[in-house]
Amino acid sequence: MRGLRIAGLLSAVAAVAAGGALAMASPAAAAIPGDPITSNLNRNLCLEPQGKSAAQGTPIVQNVCDGSSTQNWRLDNSVSSSKGHVTNGNGMCMDARGGAVNGTPVVLWTCNSISNENWQSPPFTGKFISRVSDTSSHCLDVPFSSGQVGLQVWIWGCNGTLAQSWDAHDVVIVED
Hints:
Number of strands: 16
Distance between the termini: 5 Å
């Protein structure tokens, strides 16, 4: 497997240009659990399963960043070169629990081959695009651009707002 590390991934929002460094990672990088994913809107809040649970169906919420393994995520492009699973320190997947429609909640789920767990993060965009049913119209989104701790994230039609712009702090992308 070939691993790539995107360091300091910053979002590209509206007219703001993004930057980052691309470096080849050693084969051991594939085992790195990743780093926190924070919203560029709420930079002090990280994504994690509610209550740090590893139970299937647990809502993915924004919570105060604390360095726990449940807040560490990685994008594993095991589905194809352009899409894969976003997994956390528990080894569970981020899942859009429903179709590609506005307001579909994002939950923790056991990784399998369903399209609800497929995501794409084009380099240097700061977006996590849901690939539910092979669509690419909906992005990971903070509801109502809220800074509320414990708020569950959802997918919403991609619109380029800060609510859909993520800082994925050294996201590990693993490609076959």
